[in-house]
């Protein structure tokens, strides 16, 4: 499956394999169910517990959104990109393992620790995404990015199946574990999987494009950041794309992170939700790769249109959900496009950033994505609380996709790549 790719491309893509365990087990499946059960046992209503989870995600993403461009600008200096990556990696893995030792009745503490895991996970992804310019060429970015997301779905499925098996056997009393302990075991499995398969990334991937070290790096980083804002017209197409991305990726991320909580509110059993989410991973694998190949034929922008349109259908269909079968159909619709839309957004952006300043620009990519992730959960949470219906909360997300696709339509197709180099930039 990976023979056509270089060692650096393979090692970079393998991080998607590694960290996707977090995406499915912590962000989407086991932790939300674990938290919902803990909150319910503490007397918190279904709508309020869903809203509190949304607010927690908003807090974590706000912190990252503020730090992203600043840390990214500093990390553009020679040798710093990987150091920042490893720092956030360690924070994320450590906090994920810690989740296994927090008593289930401490639902507030669970949310606090979850916030730290999210900071580590999404923080490491800022620098991981920026490394794409160092490991491959512009011509191969769509395919490499999409393949990374694709193998990530398969990679996440393995620890997910192991975790499901442990939880189901615990529920059936086949093994001498409570359901609580089985869920906590899943958190440990996630931490180990994430760390183990990140080793090739740490070992083989290096920063090829960078800015030379200089005195007062922090002060000069702020100056470069300020200069980027002054030269914003120079990057008009790029920032117009980021504005579109701000809206549509908000809807994508909110549906991914809140889907399990929404399914629980509909009365779907935990076992059914876990099986549905597993099948979502399986279906998403070939569709992510398909998006990458179709992007080479029809352009990445046109395939982004397709993905956004699918999500508009998802929002409409979610409003009418009543049965487990309805949730199955909804999940499969999401599976066809969630990997493709994220992968092509990453590669579309990466093709047009100045390579030696990739961290700075991916910091902006992060800030737009993360501020978007604040608005979506807040919109869903507030709508759910005000109307007393989680279905109304999901339906409200359609606004984000409509605005996103409208702005994306105004993004001009650049005739040449926006790769204007800073005079201090170098390629190693």
TrEMBL record:
It holds the Pfam family ATG22. Coiled coil: none annotated. The chain crosses the membrane at residues 12-35, 55-77, 84-102, 108-128, 149-170, 182-202, 237-262, 268-291, 303-321, 327-349, 361-382, 394-411. Keywords: Membrane, Transmembrane, Transmembrane helix, Transport. Residues 237-428 form the Major facilitator superfamily (MFS) profile domain. It is found in: Cell membrane. CDD domains: MFS_YxiO_like. This is MFS transporter. The lineage of its organism: Bacteria, Bacillati, Bacillota, Bacilli, Bacillales.
């Amino acid at each position: 499956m990976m023979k056509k790719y270089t060692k650096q491309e393979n090692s970079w893509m393998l991080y998607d394999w590694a960290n996707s365990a977090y995406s499915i087990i912590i962000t989407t499946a086991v932790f939300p169910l674990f938290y919902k059960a803990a909150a319910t046992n503490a007397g918190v209503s279904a709508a309020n517990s869903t809203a509190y989870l949304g607010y927690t995600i908003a807090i974590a993403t706000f912190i990252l959104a503020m730090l992203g461009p600043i840390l990214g600008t500093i990390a553009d200096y020679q040798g710093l990109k990987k150091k920042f990556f490893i720092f956030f990696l360690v924070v994320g893995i450590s906090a994920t393992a810690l989740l296994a030792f927090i008593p289930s009745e401490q639902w507030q503490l669970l949310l606090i620790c979850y916030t730290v895991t999210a900071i580590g996970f999404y923080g490491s992804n800022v620098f991981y995404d920026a490394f794409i310019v160092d490991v491959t060429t512009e011509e191969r970015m769509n395919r490499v990015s999409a393949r990374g997301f694709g193998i990530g779905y398969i990679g996440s499925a393995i620890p997910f199946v192991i975790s499901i098996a442990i939880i189901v056997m615990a529920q059936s009393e086949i093994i001498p574990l409570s359901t609580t302990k089985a869920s906590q075991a899943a958190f440990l499995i996630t931490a180990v999987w994430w760390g183990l398969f990140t080793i090739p990334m740490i070992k083989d991937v290096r920063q090829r494009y960078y800015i030379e070290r200089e005195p007062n790096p922090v002060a000069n980083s702020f100056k470069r950041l300020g200069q980027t804002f002054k030269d914003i017209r120079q990057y008009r197409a790029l920032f117009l794309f980021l504005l579109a991305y701000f809206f549509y990726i908000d809807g994508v991320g909110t549906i991914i992170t809140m889907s399990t909580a929404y399914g629980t509110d509909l009365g779907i059993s935990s076992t059914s939700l876990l099986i549905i989410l597993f099948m979502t991973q399986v279906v998403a694998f070939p569709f992510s790769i398909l998006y990458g190949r179709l992007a080479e034929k029809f352009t990445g922008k046109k395939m982004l249109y397709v993905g956004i349109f699918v999500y508009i259908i998802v929002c409409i269909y979610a409003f009418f959900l009543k049965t487990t079968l309805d949730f199955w159909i909804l999940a499969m619709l999401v599976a066809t496009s969630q990997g493709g839309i994220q992968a092509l957004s990453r590669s579309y952006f990466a093709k047009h950033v100045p390579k030696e300043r990739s961290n700075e620009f991916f910091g902006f990519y992060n800030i737009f994505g993360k501020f978007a992730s604040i608005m979506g959960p807040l919109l869903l949470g507030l709508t759910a609380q005000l109307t007393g219906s989680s279905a109304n909360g999901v339906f409200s997300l359609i606004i984000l996709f409509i605005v996103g696709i409208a702005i994306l339509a105004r993004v001009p197709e650049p005739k040449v790549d926006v790769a204007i180099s800073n005079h201090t930039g170098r390629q190693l």
